[in-house]
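Postdoc handover notes: sequence design on the structure in folder B. Input tokens:
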């Protein structure tokens, strides 16, 4: 018999977070991934920000299909919570896409979101810039 593949629980217990999160994300079990992340203090924040960026991309792709403003809100919340410490070209593209979607909303759509998306986007961008050594003054 071939060796049994470890379960997500076993991977988490042994500190193999990336392997566990790869399994959960491939199964689209994002709630389980965030729950597991909240139970372990020793997870590299950069690892979590990678999964947050991947999830935010999926959320925004879904909003292309239904124009759901809640998708924009969810992506913004996720990226703000798990703000990356290192920005690369893919993350810049993701942030630009999110900003474009927010800034292209009509006033009615913006009011429907409580008028908070632009200030929250600004908070995310300042947070990301400050973590990446960019002067935000």
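Designed sequence:
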């Amino acid at each position: 018999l071939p060796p049994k593949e470890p379960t997500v629980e076993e991977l988490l217990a042994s500190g193999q977070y990336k392997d566990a999160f790869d399994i959960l994300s491939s199964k689209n079990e994002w709630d389980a991934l965030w729950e597991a992340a909240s139970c372990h203090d020793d997870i590299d924040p950069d690892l979590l920000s990678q999964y947050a960026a991947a999830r935010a991309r999926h959320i925004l792709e879904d909003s292309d299909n239904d124009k759901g403003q809640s998708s924009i809100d969810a992506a913004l919340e996720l990226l703000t919570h798990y703000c990356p410490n290192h920005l690369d070209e893919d993350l810049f593209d993701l942030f630009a896409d999110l900003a474009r979607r927010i800034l292209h909303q009509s006033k009615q759509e913006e009011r429907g979101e409580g008028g908070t998306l632009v200030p929250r986007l600004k908070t995310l961008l300042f947070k990301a810039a400050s973590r990446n050594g960019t002067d935000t003054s």
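Context for whoever picks this up: The chain has eight helices and no strands. Don't rerun without checking with the PI first.
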